[in-house]
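Bench notes, bay 3.
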Amino acid sequence: MSESPGETSFRLHAIVHGRVQGVNFRYYTQLEAARLGLTGWVRNCWDDTVETVAEGPLPALKTFEHFLNRGPSTARVERVDVTYGEASGSFGGFSIRY
């Protein structure tokens, strides 16, 4: 999904809480971001949360946020802390960070 003329990109930063590590959360997050045409990254954090940054059109980011609140079927999402801001345009794709 490429950006249409006049369509503004935004940045979503999210911390996902719950049973989200060891359940393929990063893998499915990467698949969902690719399906939506988003760029950015996802990673596990030391405190058992998952952090992600995604950039793209606002409608795609809202769909992505909805996915983060569900996660894959093996996950149990308790809470997602989300902030929105301006896109940096610095990502070439969507990656899993280790």
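Next record in the batch:
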Amino acid sequence: MKVWIDPGHGGSASGAVKGSRMEKDDTLKLAKLVKAAFERCGINTIMTRTTDVFVSLKDRTDLENKNNCDLAVSLHRNSAADSSACGVETWMHSKAPASYIKWGEDVLKELEKVGVSKNRGVKKGFTGDANSDYAVNRDTKSPSMMIELGFISNDKDNGDYDKNLNAYSEAIVKACCNYLGAKYTENKPATSGTGSTTNTGTNGGTLYRVQVGAFENKENAEKLRDELKAKGYSAFIS
């Protein structure tokens, strides 16, 4: 199995903005976690971008088409002039079958379990035009979905996003695995090992923290972190 993951926007296309916060940065952070979670579950992934670069919509969908993907997920954040607008929603093709709609509903249900300000439901077509479609749904071959994960214009949604980023990624992957008929494997943090620094565990035992590398290039560090997470380890960059 292979899943196409699309972090919305990038490079000169910042997407929605609030102050110094940009949609392109939020979607890339989430996409990397989604990628690691899929790969931990034994599902191959392909990303439209892994850094802050501009990628045209055509190049994004062409990548999906030529890789014979089983699923396509595009990650976005919403925005509105009214700062009270909030919540999560999924967008499907205007002619999406019932199975796609159920998939979209499952993603929203899993996100609700984590905690969201509002479930805005599954939507079809294009904002303001139910007979048109977003390119990520129109021009991809596999079952596709665009997820609008909270409003960047809403402070509470931003707070939830930052607090629940890992859990949101797991919720998305869990629902997608269910749709694909694949086994979802929980991310179980490592609880022991060998190393030079120690901490006291919650039950009073000693826990050992392991450092596995140091890099001058942040991208190399992020790659190793994602590989460790894909194997079920708790990993972070300091």
